[in-house]
Design brief:
The structure is a single chain. This protein has helices spanning 4-20, 23-32, 75-78, 87-99, 109-121, 132-147, 196-199, 210-219, 245-255, 275-280, 306-313, 327-340, 343-367, 392-396, 400-412, 434-451, and strands spanning 54-58, 61-64, 69-72, 125-129, 151-155, 202-205, 224-229, 259-263, 286-289, 300-304, 372-376, 379-383, 415-416, 426-427. The longest helix is centred in the last third of the chain and has 25 residues, at 343-367. Helix content is 41%, strand content 13%. Helix 5 crosses helix 12 (327-340), helix 8 packs parallel to helix 9 and helix 13 (343-367) packs parallel to helix 16 (434-451). The protein is an alpha/beta fold. The mean pLDDT is 95. It has 16 helices and 14 strands. The protein folds into two domains: 4-81 and 342-451, Alpha-Beta Complex (Aspartate Aminotransferase, domain 1), CATH 3.90.1150.10; 87-340, 3-Layer(aba) Sandwich (Aspartate Aminotransferase, domain 2). The chain is globular and about 60 Å long. The structure holds pyridoxal-5'-phosphate. Residues 77, 131-133, 136, 159-161, 230, 234-235, 263, 265-266, 290 line the site of pyridoxal-5'-phosphate.
Length: 453
């Protein structure tokens, strides 16, 4: 690997190129601080070296306000599986706008969406919300409401949105902080503004550590409502579950009267037609979906077993929201499920995934980089580590500087990956093609040549 100083110089050079290419973004970013807190519309858009202001998207491409075009592998943090301006999504939205976008009464599209989600995720009953945060919040409420227990278990490093119960041990990458032992991580608030009393209700375990869950259940017998996790971890690059881990979790939790909730906000539809549930064959008690299911429109869904959702049906837990299942979101979601995320589209994306993985692996072998490719469905990432990553503690050892340098080379070469280096993954869309993947591979080759040992 390049020495740290080499890499720092390379990053500096690439950041200079980046800034030179985007004077209008720099101007808007500066101007925006006068009206938008922090100069952006969501805090994670504050990225180094500067936020990129976009003009529009079309197909598999994004265009910034300086006129630069990019192959979009950012995917709007996991949303843009349909790509931009997909004809089926446009037609559905246009038709619905003519007929009204909000009534706060059910419309028929919700039935088609629920039927399709039933089929894909193997859970019978569904409700809707507007963001991943709302979906996981409802899942946690439901587990507590059903069991009458207050404690939940979450996985260290999993992000489930910004509500209090799950803003715990999300990305504790501050080295000054004591995270506790790997087999019994401390519960650490992931943000200011989260009361300690709430943080303490969330117990933390490592991913792929079944024994730790057993210990938590033993230590707090009869007090744990359930566990929420990403079945394939996607806010730490991509970390796959060990064989038997998810089945083991379900059996263990059920044996103690606790529930299992999968946060498929990122994996739903992108890992495969039935998300990680379909890929792994393990059906939890509750599934949370958002991001890609709306084809670019804000929508979330919560699916559950008959036993779980009977608590919603009988009014024991009131799952509410003014915009839940609004007609615009349902129309877009129906088009996404029935016309965009089709078997043919998954076949096409699988070919592109293989092309990307094979190309990257070839280049990694050629350049001698300590790196590996992890991918599932439309998602993938390069992990800059020679060792396999099974949990968040392994992930913390991955060198972020390489991920940031890679991001800069891709960006300057016309491919927009999500910022935040090693944390995020690529998302391709049903509109990407071989030329898009080849551009990504060519940029990777340029990067590898610059940083190889
Ligand atoms: C796995 C996961 N769950 C939940 C969320 C929260 O979703 P939202 O930002 O729509 O509230 C995210 C967002 O990135 C996520 O990655």
């Amino acid at each position: 690997m390049a020495t740290r100083a080499d890499l720092a110089t390379i990053i500096e050079q690439q950041e200079e190129i980046f800034i030179r290419r985007q004077p209008e973004s720099a101007r808007l970013a500066d101007h925006a601080t006068q009206s938008l807190a922090g100069g952006v519309v969501s805090s994670w858009q504050i990225s180094r070296p500067q936020p990129v202001w976009l003009s529009h998207g079309k197909g598999s491409k994004l265009y910034d306000v300086d006129g630069n075009s990019y192959v979009d592998l950012h995917g709007g943090y996991g949303v843009s599986l349909a790509g931009h301006g997909h004809p089926a999504i446009l037609a559905a939205i246009r038709a619905q706008i003519e007929r009204g976008t909000h009534f706060a009464q059910p419309t028929e599209a919700a039935l088609s969406v629920a039927a399709e989600l039933q089929r894909r995720f193997g859970l019978p009953l569904w409700r809707f919300a507007n963001s991943g945060t709302e979906a996981t919040m409802d899942a946690v409420h439901l587990m507590r409401a059903i069991t009458g227990r207050d404690l939940i278990i979450k996985v260290e490093g999993c992000y489930h949105g910004h509500h209090d119960s799950v803003q715990v041990s999300v990305c504790p990458d501050d080295d000054s902080e004591d995270r506790g032992p790997a087999d019994a991580p401390y519960s650490l608030p992931a943000s200011t503004g989260i009361p300690r009393a709430i943080t303490d209700l969330t117990l933390v375990v490592g991913f792929n550590d079944l024994d730790a869950v057993q210990r938590r259940l033993d230590e707090h017998e009869g007090q744990i409502a359930g566990m929420i996790l990403e079945p394939i971890m996607m806010n730490a690059g991509i970390i796959l579950p060990d064989p038997g881990y998810l089945t083991g979790l379900k059996e263990l939790l059920h044996s103690r009267g606790a529930l299992l909730a999968f946060d498929e906000v990122k994996t739903g539809l992108t890992a495969g037609p039935g998300g990680a549930t379909g890929v792994t064959g393990v059906t939890p008690d509750i599934v949370c979906l958002a991001k890609a299911i709306g084809g670019g429109v804000a929508v979330a869904a919560i699916g559950g077993t008959e036993a779980v959702m009977s608590h919603v049906a009988n009014g024991d837990y009131e799952m509410v929201g003014t915009f839940n299942g609004n007609p615009l979101a349902m129309a877009a979601c129906r088009a996404m499920l029935t016309e965009v995320a089709t078997p043919e589209a998954y076949e096409r994306m699988e070919k592109l995934r293989r092309r990307a993985v094979e190309g990257l692996e070839l280049e990694i072998a050629r350049s001698g980089l300590d790196a590996q490719v992890v991918s599932v469905g439309a998602k993938g990432c390069v992990v800059f580590s020679a060792d396999p990553v099974r949990n968040f503690r392994d992930f913390l050892r991955v060198r972020d500087a390489y991920s940031h340098a890679h991001w800069l080379f891709q960006h300057n070469g016309g491919v927009f990956l999500p910022p935040w280096g090693k944390i995020e993954q690529w998302l391709m869309s049903v509109q990407h093609d071989e030329a898009d993947i080849d551009r990504f591979l060519a940029n990777f080759a340029t990067f590898a040549a610059a940083v190889r040992p």
